[in-house]
Amino acid sequence: MHAITISEPGGPENLQWTEVPDPSPGAGEVLIDVAASAVNRADLLQRQGHYPPPPGASDVLGLECSGTVAELGEGVEGWQVGDEVCALLAGGGYAEKVVVPAVQLLPVPGEVELISAAGLPEVACTVWSNVVMHAGLGEGDVLLCHGGAGGIGTHAIQVGKALGATVAVTAGSAERLERCRQLGADLTINYREQDFVEELKKETGGADVILDNMGAKYLGRNVDALATNGRLVVIGFQGGVKGELNLGKLGAKRGSVAVTTLRARPVEDKGRIVADVRERLWPLIENGSVRPVIDQVIPMAEAANGHRALEEGGVFGKVVLTAKS
Ligand SMILES: NC(=O)c1ccc[n+]([C@@H]2O[C@H](COP(=O)([O-])OP(=O)(O)OC[C@H]3O[C@@H](n4cnc5c(N)ncnc54)[C@H](OP(=O)(O)O)[C@@H]3O)[C@@H](O)[C@H]2O)c1
C-alpha cells in the first residue's frame, strides 16, 4: 500500500507518498481500507520530530480516518467486512490501509458522507471527553472555547449549543468570528483586539467550562474568566507549557484545572470515550445538530499542502486528505 512517510524530521516537504508493507489486524483489531484521513495540529509536531508516536503505535502520521472494514481480527464482534466506519487512531491514518482496535471504531453517522466522516473522530472524542465527560457541561452553563474557528472549536461550538449551553469563543479575525456565530456561537471575542476576560465577564459573568488550546499564555486569564465552581480544561500548549497558577484565586472560586491528552491513553480508555461518543454525541450528528466542518479536501499524496495550510493559519474547521484519487 501507499502511505505518507517522513524522510527526516523537518518541514512539510519531508512528507512523501511511498510504498510500505500492508498492516494486518491482530486479535481485537480491524483492518480498514482508508477513504480519507484528516490533518491535526499534533501531526505537524510529529513531522518536526517533537511528538513521537506512543509505544506500539504506527509511525505513519494520522490520528483519524474513515473507510470500509476490510478484515476482522480474531474475536472482533459487532462489525462486518464492508461496514462504512470512522476511527480514532493512535497513528497510521495517512495511508491506504490502517489497523485499529475495534473499540475505537464508530459507524459513519446518518447523512454524513464517508469522506467528511474522516474529520470527526478526533474532534468528537476530544471535545466530548473533556467538555462533557470530564467537565460535565450542561444546559444553561457558559462554555468558553478558545480557537473557535479551528477543528476543535468549530465542533465544540455546535456541541455546546446542542447541549443548551451559552457558547463564547475567541478567534483572530472578524471574518472568522462571524463564521463561528453562524455555527451558533453566542459571544465572539477577537483575541487580537479584545480582552476575553473583560468581554466574557461583562456578557455572562464567567465561564463554567473553558476549553483551552493555549496553555501557559492564558493560564492566569483563564482562571480570572472562570465562574464559581468553574472547570478549566487545557488541551493544547500553543502558548507554552510553563505558567504560574494562582491557587488563591482558583480556590476562592472553588475552581479546577485539568490538562489532558487523548492519544497516549490506553486502548480501554479510548474505547470508553468512543462508546460514550457513540451513545450520546452520535445522535446529535444523526439529527443534524452537529455537522462536520470541512475547510478543504485534498489528495493524501499532497498532505504537505494540508500541513502548510494549518501552519499558515486561516483554515476554518478541518483539512481532509483523501486516500484514493
Ligand atoms: N489534548 C488532546 O487530546 C488534543 C486533541 C486534539 C487537539 N488538541 C489541541 O487542541 C488545539 C486545537 O486543535 P485544532 O485541531 O482545533 O487546531 P487548529 O484547527 O489548528 O486550530 C488552532 C486554533 O488556535 C487558534 N489560536 C491561535 N492563537 C490563539 C490565541 N492567541 N488565542 C486563541 N486562539 C488562538 C487559532 O485561531 P485563529 O485561526 O482564529 O487565529 C486556531 O483556530 C491544538 O493545540 C491541538 O494540538 C489536543
From TrEMBL:
<keyword id="KW-0560">Oxidoreductase</keyword>
<dbReference type="InterPro" id="IPR013149">
    <property type="entry name" value="ADH-like_C"/>
</dbReference>
<keyword id="KW-0521">NADP</keyword>
<dbReference type="InterPro" id="IPR036291">
    <property type="entry name" value="NAD(P)-bd_dom_sf"/>
</dbReference>
<protein>
    <submittedName>
        <fullName>NAD(P)H-quinone oxidoreductase</fullName>
    </submittedName>
</protein>
<dbReference type="Pfam" id="PF08240">
    <property type="entry name" value="ADH_N"/>
</dbReference>
<feature type="domain" description="Enoyl reductase (ER)">
    <location>
        <begin position="10"/>
        <end position="321"/>
    </location>
</feature>
<dbReference type="InterPro" id="IPR011032">
    <property type="entry name" value="GroES-like_sf"/>
</dbReference>
<dbReference type="InterPro" id="IPR002364">
    <property type="entry name" value="Quin_OxRdtase/zeta-crystal_CS"/>
</dbReference>
<dbReference type="InterPro" id="IPR013154">
    <property type="entry name" value="ADH-like_N"/>
</dbReference>
<feature type="region of interest" description="Disordered">
    <location>
        <begin position="1"/>
        <end position="23"/>
    </location>
</feature>
<dbReference type="Pfam" id="PF00107">
    <property type="entry name" value="ADH_zinc_N"/>
</dbReference>
<dbReference type="InterPro" id="IPR014189">
    <property type="entry name" value="Quinone_OxRdtase_PIG3"/>
</dbReference>
<dbReference type="InterPro" id="IPR020843">
    <property type="entry name" value="ER"/>
</dbReference>
